[in-house]
Each structure stands twice: as C-alpha cells, then as structure tokens.
Automatic annotation (TrEMBL):
<dbReference type="InterPro" id="IPR013786">
    <property type="entry name" value="AcylCoA_DH/ox_N"/>
</dbReference>
<feature type="domain" description="Acyl-CoA dehydrogenase/oxidase C-terminal">
    <location>
        <begin position="255"/>
        <end position="399"/>
    </location>
</feature>
<dbReference type="Pfam" id="PF00441">
    <property type="entry name" value="Acyl-CoA_dh_1"/>
</dbReference>
<protein>
    <submittedName>
        <fullName>Acyl-CoA dehydrogenase</fullName>
    </submittedName>
</protein>
<dbReference type="InterPro" id="IPR009075">
    <property type="entry name" value="AcylCo_DH/oxidase_C"/>
</dbReference>
<dbReference type="GO" id="GO:0003995">
    <property type="term" value="F:acyl-CoA dehydrogenase activity"/>
</dbReference>
<feature type="domain" description="Acyl-CoA dehydrogenase/oxidase N-terminal">
    <location>
        <begin position="6"/>
        <end position="118"/>
    </location>
</feature>
<comment type="similarity">
    <text>Belongs to the acyl-CoA dehydrogenase family.</text>
</comment>
<keyword id="KW-0285">Flavoprotein</keyword>
<keyword id="KW-0560">Oxidoreductase</keyword>
<dbReference type="Pfam" id="PF02771">
    <property type="entry name" value="Acyl-CoA_dh_N"/>
</dbReference>
<keyword id="KW-0274">FAD</keyword>
<dbReference type="GO" id="GO:0050660">
    <property type="term" value="F:flavin adenine dinucleotide binding"/>
</dbReference>
<dbReference type="InterPro" id="IPR009100">
    <property type="entry name" value="AcylCoA_DH/oxidase_NM_dom_sf"/>
</dbReference>
<dbReference type="InterPro" id="IPR037069">
    <property type="entry name" value="AcylCoA_DH/ox_N_sf"/>
</dbReference>
<dbReference type="InterPro" id="IPR046373">
    <property type="entry name" value="Acyl-CoA_Oxase/DH_mid-dom_sf"/>
</dbReference>
<dbReference type="InterPro" id="IPR036250">
    <property type="entry name" value="AcylCo_DH-like_C"/>
</dbReference>
C-alpha cells in the first residue's frame, strides 16, 4: 500500500474543501437542515456540476468520473469536516454500487447516468434496524430478511403488471426527498423466503413518505410507506442479493470511516484554536499541561483512525470481482479481508472522543445549542446507532478473522 496521495486525490480534497468553506458554513448548514429537503439543492448542484462528486466512483461509460472508492472516501472526508448535509451517502455510496453490481444492462444504462449527474437522488430502504445487519457489519447477513409478515417490513408479490410492494420502512436516509427508492422486500412466503431489491419511483402512486426527527439532523431520515406500489425487480430473477449487500457493507464502512475522520479532525482543529484564545488565570488555557495532554490524546486517536480508514478505503478499491455477484461486480472485499467495519469502529470512537473533549474544553458555550460542537457529537452518536455500535463492529471483525473459538473463517 502506497500511503502517498496522488496529485488527482490532492486536487479533489483541495477543491472540495474550498467549495464547502464558502458554501457550507455554520449558518448555511443550519438553514439547510431546517429546509424541507434536509439539504441545500444549490450546494448539491455545485457538487454534481462541475465537480462530478455523485459519479466519482462510477465508470465513465455511465457518465461517471471513473475513479475508485478511495477517491470517494477522500471526498467524504471533506464533506465530513463540514458535516455537509447532502444525498451523497444515500445516492452514491449505498444505491449506485448496487445498481452497478446487480442491475441489468438496461437498468444500468437508464439509472446510472442520472445518478452520476446528480439529477436523480436515491435512497436504500431496508427495514430498521436491519441496515447494519443487511450490510453484514455487525453479524452475518445470511439470516437477514426484509420482511416478516405481521412483524413488519416489506412484502413483495407478483401481479399481472409486475411486482407490488406493501409495507413500511423507517429510518431511510434521505428517503423523504429521493427521486428513486431501492427497496429490500421479502418474497416467496415462509417456505421459500427470499430477500430481493426493487426499484420504486419516489413519487409513485401508493408511496407515502414522512420525514422523521433524527438525532443527527445533518442525516435526514424518513418513514416510507408502500401500499401496493408497482415496482421493478433490480437485476435478474436469479440474482443473489445478500452477498452483494454484505460486500457493499465493507465499502460503506470505509467511506463512513473517512467521513468520521474528517469530522474528528475538524473538531480538534477548532478546539485547539479556541484553547489558544480563551484565557484563565491570566494565560491561555491551551498552555496548561493537562489541556495539552487531553488534546494530544485526541490527536493520536484521530491520526490512528485516519490510517485505518485510508487502509480500508484502499482495500475496498483493490477488491477483485465477486464470484457471487457475477464477473462485473465491484463490491467484493479485497483478498478476503473485511477491514471496513474495524476502521469504522475506530473512527467513530475517535470522533466521539474528539467531540466530547471539544464540548468540555469550550466551557459553557460548548454545551449550547447554538454552538457547532454538539452537531459533531450527534454525528458520532447517530452513525453509531445506524451502522454500529462500536463494540459490535469489532465483535464482527474478530469473528470474521477467526479470533473466536468456532468463529467463521474470513469470507
């Protein structure tokens, strides 16, 4: 692994940082999260054109930039620094890779150029709280089911005109505003139960979407209700969804880890700046040894998390094609490794520690709603609720590595 960034990667980071500094300051951030869409459409347009961020990791033949998940992760490190609310995670990290890996030629040709251009946003609807299970981040997803009859979820049944979906999904990232929904649904009844993915237009008849109150307002979530909604099966009838979801999980974790590292680095940066200005007993509090030690611990944690996140992003980009998902899949873990979850655990822990220290060292103002420190702490806590918790991410990594007696071998 070469840890040096290329000139192209440096340029991506620099350009994004400059744009977000101008367009996503504290005031713009609060205005965006309070808007009906939960993000600034003008900022999303600027990220899409001319930067091409939504299609950064998509092939050029589908209108993408042709970079790898490494570049996408580095870009998300910058969006994480600013806590920029956007459909990037839901559209480009969760949905687009699944369409690329599992979709038919016609589906890829129709959907991917729109996703790459940012003209269409997408959301992955997986029955809560099963997103982390579906992505195999905290346990094996072989027993995952997208629905369970009276227990809830989404059921799919055949009709003369295709497939009809009925059910409800909560905590769908950007589900209230996405133009395309990728819904995990339960088919085949009890005896032949199977999870499949279906494409649903966001404004299709029978779709009812309600924005939910979320701990982290920069990641808007929605409840999606489906009442006999017409849908299209993603891919072929024999496509195996679970291996593709499990392989996607490592990629998602690597991107989220880089995003958390960016947020943690920004919290540390702001805290160091503040303790150099705030005076107590006639001197800046940053000159006190105890404060230096606390910030040094945060620095070490953030840098260690950055190393782990970069390695996870490199490993995801180096992944060979998946045998389970076909020769064109881009989702398989590299050389049997699943390091994304472990990197995500370390990054979330570092972000939570950096945000907590930032709140403490900012004194009374750090606890106020008006200050930005609480937003970073909520990002760490919100991501842990959606994709963790940390101890289960590490437990799964240890299980996959075969560290437990009787644990499964690396997959």
């Amino acid at each position: 692994m070469d840890t040096r960034l290329t000139a192209e990667q440096d340029e991506i980071r620099r350009t994004l940082r400059e744009l977000l500094h101008k367009r996503c300051g504290p005031a713009e951030l609060r205005t965006a999260v309070d808007s009906p869409a939960g993000h600034d459409p003008l900022l999303w347009s600027a990220l899409a054109d001319p930067l091409g961020l939504p299609g950064l990791a998509l092939p050029e033949r589908y209108g993408g930039v042709g970079c790898s998940v490494t570049e996408l992760a580095l870009a998300c490190e910058e969006t994480g620094r600013a806590l920029a609310p956007s459909p990037l995670l839901a559209t480009s990290v969760l949905v687009a890779p699944l369409v690329l890996a599992l979709g038919t030629d016609a589906q890829r040709a129709e959907l991917l150029p729109r996703l790459a251009a940012g003209s269409c946003t997408a959301a992955l609807a997986v029955t809560a709280p099963s997103l982390t299970t579906a992505l195999a981040l905290t346990c094996d997803n072989e027993a995952f089911s997208a629905g369970g009859g009276r227990a809830g979820g989404v059921q799919a049944r055949r009709a003369e005109s295709g497939w009809l979906l009925y059910g409800q999904v909560d905590q769908v990232l950007d589900g209230h505003s996405a133009g395309l929904l990728l819904v995990a649904a339960h088919t085949g009844g009890f005896a032949r139960a199977r999870t499949r993915l279906f494409l649903v237009a966001g404004d299709a008849p029978g779709v009812v979407r309600t924005r939910q109150t979320a701990l982290d307002a920069t990641r808007p979530q929605a409840r999606v209700q489906l009442r006999d909604v017409r849908s299209e099966l993603l891919g072929e009838e024999e496509a195996d969804v679970l291996p593709a979801l499990a392989a996607l999980g490592d990629r998602v974790a690597a991107v989220l880890a880089c995003e958390a590292v960016g947020a943690g680095d920004r919290v540390l940066e702001r805290t160091v700046e503040y303790v150099g200005q705030r005076e107590q007993f006639g001197r800046p509090i940053g000159s006190f040894q105890a404060v230096k030690h606390r910030l040094a611990d945060v620095y070490v944690a953030v840098q260690a998390a950055r190393s782990a996140a970069y390695y996870a992003a490199w490993a995801a980009a180096s992944a060979p094609p998946s045998a389970a998902s076909g020769p064109r899949s881009t989702l398989a873990p590299a050389h049997g490794e699943r390091v994304g979850g472990l990197a995500l655990a370390q990054a979330l822990e570092a972000l939570r520690g950096a945000a907590a220290e930032g709140i403490q060292l900012h004194g009374g103002i750090g606890f106020t709603w008006e200050h930005e420190a609480q937003l970073y702490f909520k990002r760490a806590a919100g991501d842990e609720l959606l994709f963790g918790p940390v101890h289960r991410l590490r437990d799964r990594a240890a299980e996959v590595a075969g560290l437990f007696a009787g644990g499964e071998a690396a997959v």
